[in-house]
Backbone:
């Protein structure tokens, strides 16, 4: 096992309470105190458990003996044995909590179950490994793994990291739903290695990347939360020394100005190698600022500079580079007064030229630094549904009146207070029309799902609104079907339980708001049990249309994957929508953008819009 560098972190807190300042007098400056950045070293004969305690369980965990450690920002328990009540909160392998726990105990990660390797990389995966290692050996420390969904990108990258010399620490930033799969793949890829040869892995979600920074005690973060976040990102120290940074579902970094993108950028700048993984890295030129360093290296140009630019400064430099390169990028003004940019080609020829140029950047250069291979064609069918006269009337009804009539609550909770739902502004009207369609079509979708299940299929239903999820699941359960539900409010462990119910056939239907990083295909190798998912045919129903092709392709790829016998699985994807509504426009726009996405990543036959539209008309 590589030697562990003691983890340091700092968190400042305010002392005292804020007082209301008298009129015309300046606000008092809040004083600060420093928290001890490290966990206390366990006393002789004891050890520490760093716990993963949900916010709603903090009081109960405290009553059971766990204590909040303000420095590292975690709950910990010191003793000789973890109490039974606290055992469900024990940290997961490769988690931030486990990393801190191992540092404090000066021990290796003993929680990972290691056995013989179960997964053997296919030749296509080994080709990806060879290309990535060749890029690094040639002095290009960047790699974009852009294979289509379901082709085994995670195992390819783990195998490449396993073979990288002089690499001790690896950071993986991924969606919450992807973490269980990463844990299984990492453990399996290193199963036959001597413990001293294994890497030290750290898995975090994009939403928790702020925990990767520590702020020196003497840093003035300001008072407003927004100011604190900005200064933390700019002035905070990198909490861990990381050799390789892996961004799974890297399209999450397209907004280079977001907090999570800026933190990942800082780690990318400090790492010796960076890997971006996504079958949908972006579908227009402005989306690729997060790969600017690799494009600089491939084209031999200067785009970003070396002055530590972050956020909006990166957006400006990337937009200027696109303008100078002849792209159809046009400037505008935001309400804040800052310049913004949009990609707005004047005609189809300009659109095609820009997309081809981006494809050339990703695939060109003296040293290939990316790989993108298509999966078997995805069967797609439009599933237009007619609204009844009563449903059309509800569709055009004011938002509050609509909720009253269909029996949905007209009150919402804001800041702990009950607030009456308001009719939407013009800007929000499209979202509300979508939400109405989603709810009004539930009876038709439920009938269709029951028919598919009766014919021997298992059905994956992708939805956007949690109210609709609850209503559809309730309708199906009332009809006697077992239904698994996955949404963003669930922990990764809870999501994994629901997915296993579907994959083992205990629930023939799964309804999910999650669009990526879950496997729902037939004949999947289920680890650590070593069993297989059912062989029942899968059907995918996209109940709620999406504007972005990234979400659409990710949804399509949940059940269209490669199975454990290296054979492609197939799941027909039905695009649900209400005819004559905003949903129909969304489906058509999404199909056109999928074609753009395919051209950028070198998969021009990803979709045939004309064939899809012909099926819709027919």
Residues:
């Amino acid at each position: 096992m590589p030697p562990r560098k003691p983890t340091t972190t700092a968190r400042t807190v305010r002392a005292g309470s804020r007082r209301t300042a008298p009129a015309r007098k300046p606000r008092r400056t809040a004083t600060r105190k420093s928290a001890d950045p490290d966990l206390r070293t366990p006393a002789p004969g004891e050890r520490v458990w760093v716990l993963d305690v949900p916010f709603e369980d903090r009081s109960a965990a405290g009553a059971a003996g766990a204590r909040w450690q303000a420095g590292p920002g975690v709950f910990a328990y010191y003793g000789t044995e973890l109490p039974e009540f606290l055992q469900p909160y024990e940290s997961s392998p490769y988690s931030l909590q486990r990393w801190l726990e191992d540092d404090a105990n000066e021990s290796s990660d003993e929680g990972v179950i290691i056995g013989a390797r179960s997964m053997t990389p296919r030749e296509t995966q080994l080709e990806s490994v060879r290309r990535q290692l060749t890029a690094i050996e040639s002095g290009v420390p960047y790699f974009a793994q852009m294979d289509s969904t379901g082709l085994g990108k995670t195992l390819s990258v783990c195998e490449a990291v396993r073979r990288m010399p002089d690499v001790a620490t690896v950071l993986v930033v991924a969606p919450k739903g992807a973490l269980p799969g990463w844990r299984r793949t990492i453990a399996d890829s290193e199963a036959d290695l001597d413990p001293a040869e294994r890497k030290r892995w750290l898995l975090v979600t994009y939403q928790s990347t702020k925990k990767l920074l520590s702020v020196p005690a003497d840093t003035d973060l300001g008072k407003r939360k927004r100011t604190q976040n900005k200064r933390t990102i700019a002035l905070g120290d990198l909490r861990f020394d990381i050799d390789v940074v892996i961004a799974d579902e890297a399209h999450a970094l397209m907004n280079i100005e977001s907090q999570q993108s800026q933190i990942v950028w800082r780690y990318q700048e400090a790492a010796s190698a960076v890997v971006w993984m996504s079958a949908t890295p972006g579908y227009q030129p402005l989306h690729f600022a997060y790969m600017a360093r690799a494009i600089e290296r491939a084209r031999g140009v200067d785009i970003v500079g070396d002055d530590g630019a972050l956020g909006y400064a990166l957006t400006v430099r990337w937009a200027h580079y696109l303008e100078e390169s002849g792209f159809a990028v046009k400037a505008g003004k935001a309400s804040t007064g800052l310049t913004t940019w949009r990609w707005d080609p004047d005609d189809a020829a300009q659109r095609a030229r820009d997309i081809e140029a981006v494809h050339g950047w990703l695939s060109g250069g003296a040293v290939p630094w990316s790989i993108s291979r298509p999966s078997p064609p995805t069967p797609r069918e439009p599933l237009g549904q007619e609204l009844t006269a009563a449903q059309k009337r509800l569709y055009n009804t004011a938002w509050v009146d609509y909720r009253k009539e269909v029996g949905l609550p007209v009150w919402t909770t804001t800041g702990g207070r009950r607030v009456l739902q308001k009719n939407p502004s013009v800007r929000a009207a499209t979202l509300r029309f979508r939400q109405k369609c989603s709810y009004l079509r539930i009876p038709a979708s439920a009938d269709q799902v029951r028919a598919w299940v009766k014919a021997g299929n298992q059905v994956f239903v992708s939805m956007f609104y949690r109210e609709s999820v609850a209503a559809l699941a309730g309708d199906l359960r009332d009809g006697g079907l077992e239904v698994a539900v996955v949404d963003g409010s669930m922990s990764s462990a809870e999501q994994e339980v629901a997915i296993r119910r579907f994959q083992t056939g205990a629930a023939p239907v799964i309804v999910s708001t999650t669009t990526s990083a879950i496997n729902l295909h037939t004949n999947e190798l289920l680890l650590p049990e070593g069993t297989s998912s059912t062989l029942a045919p899968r059907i995918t129903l996209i109940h709620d249309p999406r504007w972005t092709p990234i979400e659409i392709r990710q949804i399509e790829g949940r059940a269209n994957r490669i199975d454990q016998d290296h054979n492609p699985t197939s799941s027909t994807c039905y695009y649900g929508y209400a005819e004559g509504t905003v949903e129909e426009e969304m489906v058509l726009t999404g199909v056109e953008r999928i074609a753009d996405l395919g051209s950028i990543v070198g998969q021009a036959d990803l979709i045939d819009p004309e064939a899809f539209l012909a099926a819709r008309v027919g």
Notes: The mean pLDDT is 85. The chain has 19 helices and 25 strands.
